[in-house]
Amino acid sequence: MNINQLRAFVSIVEKGTFSAAARSMGVSQPAVSLQIQALEEFVGVELLDRRTKKVQLTEAGKLFYPSALQIVTQIDNVQHQLEELGDSVKGRLAVGGSTIPGEYVLPKLLGRFKREFPDVSITLKIGDTNEIAEQVISGELQVGLIGAKFSSGQLTSRAFLHDELVFITPSDHELAKQRAVTLEDLRKADFIIRERGSGTRQTIEGFLTTHGMSFDDFNVVMELGSTEAVVNAVSAGLGVSIVSKWAAERSLKLGELVTVKIPGFSFMRDLYLVVSKHVPTRSAGAFLSFIDALDVDEIKP
């Protein structure tokens, strides 16, 4: 039994499939299968039930998993501590972002950071706001950038960037011809929204609440799992939506979409930097210092 076998086992349990585990580890699926086969031969029992689409733990696997996770975590922690002893900044930096900062902001930031700190290995996880915050709390991620405020005594949180939300419509839609639209106009239109847990959705819901409304009052025709999917659906003429200007920028320049003002809906939301209250690793500390020294105007759309 070796650490690579334990890593493969833990990754399969977390990701749900051999293929997803292989992608997250940067190896082939057959390599992961061989690691699990060798591990099961060593312990003498089957740890995973492969008969279902999503791999399930056997009873033996349920007993074995907590110890395997603890071993992998402890070895990772020791490895990080040893990396801290060197003169240069090295090691792993695990960053997460909700959809907008994860797809449109963090790639730019991490690219610049990598040029300054080439010895740091970077991973970027994209999820919804709640998911990223929870993974920072659990220690799976070191730093998160999310689209809504997340209250937790286990995190430090601060506003980092402003993000403008805009109303978008296909360029040939009847509302595209108007200088401004009302909430009543929006209620009649086919509306496309993000899934629950999205920071963008939470911001819009907060605005509607102040006007005594909710999405239940709208003709919601689609609920999609990413902002890019929302923008593409609006570009295809399937409805209208409210999204981050970052996400709509390309389609607006191509003329596929137009923005129309909503009186009373001209505002900026904050994107929040979240960090665990535990002492950060050297690589995470370097990234936070890098962000503090950054001119944020350079990355705005």
Question: Can you put this structure into words, describing what you see?
Answer:
The protein is globular and about 70 Å long. It has 301 residues and is of the alpha/beta class. The model has no long low-confidence stretch (mean pLDDT 86). The N and C termini lie far apart (50 Å). Strands 3, 4, 5, 6, 9, 10 and 11 form a seven-stranded mixed β-sheet that branches. The chain is built from eleven helices and eleven strands. The chain folds into three domains: 81 residues, Arc Repressor Mutant, subunit A, CATH 1.10.10; 101 residues, Periplasmic binding protein-like II (D-Maltodextrin-Binding Protein, domain 2), CATH 3.40.190; 105 residues, Periplasmic binding protein-like II (D-Maltodextrin-Binding Protein, domain 2, 3-Layer(aba) Sandwich), CATH 3.40.190. Strand 3, helix 5 and strand 4 form a beta-alpha-beta unit.
The CATH superfamily of the largest domain bears the name Periplasmic binding protein-like II
Rounded average pLDDT: 86
Low-confidence sequence ranges: none
CATH class type of the largest domain: Alpha Beta
Spatial gap, N to C terminus: 50 Å
